[in-house]
Amino acid sequence: MNNETLIENEARAEALEQAIADQDLVATADLLTGMGTTEIIEVLERLNTRERAVVYRLLAKDRAIEVFERLDSTLQSEILSGLQDEDVAAVFAELNPDDRVALLDELPASVARRLMLGLSPTQRILTATVLGYPQGSIGRSMSPEFVTAHPAGTVAETLVKVREQLDDAETIYTLPVTDAGRLVGVISLRDLLRAEPDERIGELMSVPESMGAEVDAEAAARHCADLKILALPIVDREDRLVGILTVDDALRILESAESEDAARTGGSEPLRRPYLATPVASIVRSRVVWLLVLALGATLTVQVLDLFEATLEQQVVLTLFIPLLIGTGGNTGNQAATTITRALALGDVRPRDVLQVLAREVRVGVTLGLLLGSLGFVIASAVYAVPIGAVVGLTLLGVCTMAATVGGVMPMLGKAIKADPAVFSNPFITTFVDAAGLILYFLIAKLVLGI
Prior knowledge:
Layout: H1 3-21, H2 25-33, H3 37-44, H4 49-57, H5 61-70, H6 73-81, H7 85-94, H8 97-104, H9 109-117, H10 121-131, H11 155-164, E1 174-179, E2 182-188, H12 189-194, H13 201-204, E3 211-212, H14 217-227, E4 231-235, E5 241-246, H15 247-265, H16 280-307, H17 309-314, H18 322-346, H19 354-383, H20 386-416, H21 426-449
Parallel strand pairs: 3-4
Antiparallel strand pairs: 1-2, 4-5
Helix pairs in contact: 1-2, 1-3, 3-5, 6-8, 8-10, 14-15, 16-21, 18-20, 18-21, 19-20, 20-21
GO cellular component, one term: plasma membrane
InterPro entries: CBS_dom (IPR000644), CBS_dom_sf (IPR046342), Mg_transptr_MgtE_intracell_dom (IPR006668), MgtE_N_sf (IPR038076), MgtE_transporter (IPR006669), SLC41_membr_dom (IPR006667), SLC41_membr_dom_sf (IPR036739)
Family: Belongs to the SLC41A transporter family.
């Protein structure tokens, strides 16, 4: 997309928002007609609940369904609450089974039951299949609508089958090959079109990559992305094909997981919806719990300062370096934690690699401590005195080593006990390093300065 197109899109979006603000429904409808689906979604995500419902009602039926499918499930739920019952049933029936399940999780149980009863028997069975798997598993995010091939079938027969199910299948570019329901191979549409009509599928298929339906959704999505395939077959415990994970769904799962990690690393809960579409109360709730936890943790720092009050009274200059030392320690720990959390998500390291990670982070911490400690020693010695410089330099060496080590190990500990590694990252590490770093600082000062 070139700059001129971007400018035009922004101008249309601004004009649409102005028409909505002016309550000019005619102008709003006209502007919506000339906008693409992605543009409309971006505008909807910026509106409040009432405005979003008004704009959605002005969309043509086909466009409305297309837009609805691509919205977050929380926004879908809000839009449904503003539609008539018959409109709700129509929109719900047009969704793919996996999208329906995500929406059902956001709706009241009574509404969910009513919508399920309104589905055709076939769609009700497909949706119930996805609903039957645990939340957080890939079975909950897979699509049960797919086209299969049989190893004894010919290319011509398979292509006829693909054409017959073209409108119902989630994807046709990768076809699972099954025999008596069990996954035995995969074949791409490209290979089908390249082959002779009378060739057998069993001669053309390749060895399949698959995932169990109860595997964690993020792990399955990561596997699909790593393999760089368009669709990953999902099987049950007996290796029977139950669904497929398409690459677009895999990317959506990974985007959601990374947004969650980023939020928790920063000390808040994920919003799970666009920022401007999130009520202020929800933003407050996502942050206040962590702030209270961190505030309680910060009392450790206060207790340490109180414990070494006599030391500070003898050498008041030591107070000047407290922000430098605890800031450097916190930043060093956060860097290590963020790196290891990311490595865990990518599968680069596993909890059993803890000793290797520990050894590497100790070396990294010592190296950083030597560099920063040497600089701190030179500056503090020049401005104050050599003993003060020695205290600062040695403390930086110790704090960096400790922070890098703790920052590297804590996410792995979280992973080992089945907790979110991001929760064990920056907020708690910062609190721990602040208190431990101050203790180290005052102990070194008492030793070097003899106070």
